[in-house]
Design goal:
heterodimer; A: 345 residues; mainly alpha; Ammonium transporter fold; 16 helices; 63% helix; B: 441 residues; alpha/beta; Ubiquitin-like (UB roll); Rossmann fold; 3 domains; four-stranded antiparallel sheet; globular
Chain lengths: 345, 441
Amino acid sequence: MAENNFHDGLTVSSSPHLVTTLDTRKTMICVLAALAPSAVMSAVFFGIYPVCLILGCMAFSALCEYLYDRIMKLQNTVKDCSSLVTGAILALTLPPTLPIWMAFIGCAVSIIIVKCLYGGLGKNIANPAIVGRIVLLLSFTTQMTTWQYTGFQSAAGIDGMTGPTPLGQLADGAFSSAPGLMDLLLGNKGGSLGETCIIAILAGGIFLIVSRIISPLIPCIYLGTVFVFAFIYYLAVPQEGAGALYMAVFHLLTGGAVFGAFFCATDYVTSPILKRGKVIYAIGCGFFTMVIRLFCSYPEGASFAILFMNIMTPLIDKYTTDSYYGVTKRAREEKKRAKEGEANG
Amino acid sequence: MLFGNKRLPSIEAGHYKNTAGSATQVMPIPARVSLSMSENIGAPCKVLVQKGDTVKVGQKIGDTDAFLSVPIHASVSGTVSSIETMRNAMGGMDTFVVIDSDGKQEMAEDLKPPVIEDQLGFINAMRESGLVGLGGAAFPTWVKLNPKNLIDVDTLIVNGAECEPFITSDHRTMLEDADNVIDGMLAVMKWLIAEDGYIAIEDNKQDAIEKFRELLKERGITNIRVFPLPARYPKGAERVLIEEITGKKCDAGVLPASLGLIVMNITSTAFVGQYLKDGIPLIKKRITVDGDAVKEAKNVMAPIGTSIKDIVDFCGGYAKEPKKILMGGPMMGRAVYSDRMTLIKNNNAILIFGEDQAFIPEESACINCGRCHEGCPFHLLPTAFADAYATRDAKRLKELQVMQCMECGSCSFVCPAHRPLAFINKLSKALVKEADSNGGK
């Protein structure tokens, strides 16, 4: 009606009129901050090259996303920082000696094929960094499985520049030379950039949990499953020279399980949305990690396990959301009430 | 926590309670008031006066025979200058009675404390008082106090949670009008034969909790208890409150009375106590005026029908250009399109937001974080609603229990992608209702 003067410039919108200050960008920056301790420790163990690798991957990933948005004439989404996180996570799962051009191929696969082609952030069905790593592993198997000793190991007189990871030693039956638990915890062992120093990963993971970016549900259940699976397996099939408890802890602390549990498996987009779904997902991650480690030809299976559960996520979501807030229970009750009504009427 | 609040339940509502310490100031009688003829859920009133009539304070100017209704009373004395149809704050069209005040505030002669002899008399008095649920729903109180299963009702819960940010009017009612709250409760409990009473107050209002505990002790009342709630949003929502206090689940569409409960807003209860003493119907309201675009944030007692402009002028005027004017709190309140809108009975705050406070960030892609689900007091899944709504799938929406949503806005608040989830829920509910009324399945 014309007699009502609309006050110029007043916004009329649906409630709520107050929203959180947290946004996607801040979430991603938090994740980057949580990755920083692992990056620092990789520099401590492997020198300056890993730092170049990490920063290079981050920059190249952002560039890929920028170019894709530009070429496809899409809104520029680089500012949400998710491509930086993908680049950093990918770099931290690579061996310290990988040529940077190979890493760039991984970044391009992660960002362009896995993320952008599926519709960008939120639409990808698998964790981009995990797929990037797996593509590299299958394409450049030699380089991707060449592990440099840490500076401290070399100083300690272990000859040669490279050697197998503890899991590799286990798979090769050369377990007796595996490092002690303390070395595993500190990261004084062969392995990918970010997965060696468990303490640094935990520091980042706890930061994410405390700042409520991730819930502890997935990492705890994932690692719990790994531990229990390994413990039971080694009770049944004893390892020479080590108890089942030691072996269970060994499996926890080596390889990419801890890094994957905190930084890859918790990716919002590719993990189930409901708690019960998350539980199923995390158990699956732990289970398949151990199945691959113990029964398959690859010494490490965390990335394959997470990818597999990523793909399972829509299925888990489908079945768990159908029963949330007692949807099925409620429907049953409604039916029952209707029947009673008929009987009474 | 680190970057604001992760989940809505972790909002400290006290964070924005800027006016909690400001005692209510009675506003001078405005030169003109416009009284809407539909101030309650249900049927609008028929106008009982004509242009040019002289009216007195408390005189009935609108009423109807329809069931779900209450009469409307003149809030000032003066002359009816016009009866016009205008757009109301909800966006619909309403009849308004505009009264030019003579400034004398002469009371109508027939106003006297009601004499109540039985439950029916109490209900009638409640209808005559013009009281509706002042917490926001505007449900006629006399209807609420007259449930079909009166015999089952054993508990009265008085809601003083006030979980909406910014608003402190209920808090001030509790501090300034505590005796009337208790008198009102005792009256309701007496006539409805309810044994137990609870006063639910969020624990960020310790002074109110203390005050009621002392008062109850002083007056030797043992069947009314103060129930402190965690200061989180939306603990003051009726269905949440019921579950917090009694542990009973109250689904949407279930009347609390069928669970043996009556839930009343604390300001409504205080009004009951007051009305039984002086017989003056509901003609004024305590409201919180706040927001960064108003000069003096404070609590104001204003006659019903006062325009927002007059109220803001009483609060020193606009501090800067207003970008959003809200009737009610920021979580569930309504944005109005003009400061010519007038105060209605169930309004408990007027918030004037400038550019900064009115800013809502742009929507980005859903990252499936699940915060909307974790923040939902009823464990609903707003992202699934949004997906189903995108294809206008009413059947799926119904399956997903969208009708359980009470539109508290928690999901929209916590969303890091700033999706308008609560808005989609409202649209979804409307879609389901439409499909139901078309007989579709």
